[in-house]
Please model this.
Amino acid sequence: MSRRLPGFRPFPSRRSPVDPNAQIDNPPPPVAGADRTRAVEAGSAPHLPAPRRIAIFSVVAMALLMSSLDSTIVATAFHSIQHGLHSSINWTSWVITAYSVGFVLALSLAGKLSDRFGRRRFFLVSVVVFAGSSLCCALATNIYVLIALRVVQAAGGAGFTPSATAIVVEHFGSSRDKAVGLFGSIFPIGAMIGPIFGGLFVTYWTWRGIFLVNVPIGLLLIVLCLHFVPPDPKRTGGHRAMDLSGMLLLGVGVLALMAGISYLGEAGARFSSPFFLAPTAIGVLGLAQFGRHVRRVADPFIAPLLISGRGFAAVNVINVLYGGAVTGMLVLVPLYAVNRYQFSALSSGTLLTADGVAAIVISSVAAMALRRTGYRLPLYVGSACIAAGMVMLAIRPPGLSAYLWLAIGACVVGFGSGLSGPASRNAGLQLAPDSSAALAALRSTGRQVGQITAVSITTAILAQAHSPGELQAKVYVAFALLLVLCLPVIRRVTEHRGSW
Model:
């Protein structure tokens, strides 16, 4: 039997669209001191003036940008790190893999710790861990130390999204839906500028600069957070013991499953190999046992309602498929352009700019319009656009240059992702705002798993092909068909209009 969470609304009312400036035009009296603490604990954030909210959003957005930038900037320094630390290519690849693994494993724990110890406090700890480990990465003298430090850095980066989301939900009142929706415009910026900064550091300075740049940003974040973000309210009552068994089961399940799926990306990998079957089986069993465990304990690591409860299950599927898996398929577009159309490395890499720009612009507009559109309409239209864009990538250009046609296809996918992103972020949060940190962590975990799965399975299929470019086109068509077949899942998303 599922347990109801604080602030959970199983059947939210269908409110009529509200004036987004209503709270600003008619502000309630300010709340301070003990009254402020009681207001926050009751789930009703005190009113903050617009400049203060903008400052808070800028602080958390800077942290999210730093984290998303770091996920792409390292790839450009791959060759320099390998030669600078006299490492093999296999061990050097773990500089990227270790961050992904550490990030996924730390996400759910980060959500729980953010709820337990306070949003601002945990945000500050995450900044310190991320910036401190970045400094140590820059000073690393061998590849093994660097890999270990990247896991620590990932643990810090994993704390940004849950704590940043919770800070916005806690302090933005009726504007929190718009602020959370705008998060979707931050991550594509980091993905686009990361390779540019990485190339500049490697060309004109050193690969160590890609880590050193995080140190001054981290110090600035600490100062700004202490000044602008309100302190966490005092929490009454003691804390229950952490669900260590749940953490262990989830960690083993996710790590084993990722190991099995990631193996498929290796050259010569086969689905029948024990290196795929064994860890995948362990991962599935571990996650199944985790599912049983959280339904039996009094205070589970992740409440089962957030995983499979009404409204939440559909949102989780959307995050994995239309969020993470779509991102994974887009990551492979440069490879597709090289294999099928013989593009240069530079030309193929710039194709994703169209996707990023479209996602940034459209997600900002969609976040502002969300109270009028509700959640299902942008999800339907956005998902359909994503599927159409995938088909466009697969077919040969009708009378246009291959570069322009692929750029248009990527732009259509970015349009769809930007349109559906704010709705998918808010659809779960409005059901249980008091669990915002855990929900943000769950969303990020699903997207990471979806991305890794899409990339690994696709590369495993392409490794067996005589004509990988033509086969990848068929993969895009098959993926588009899967997206269309899964559209009915959106009907199970709890509809909502207005602020929450």
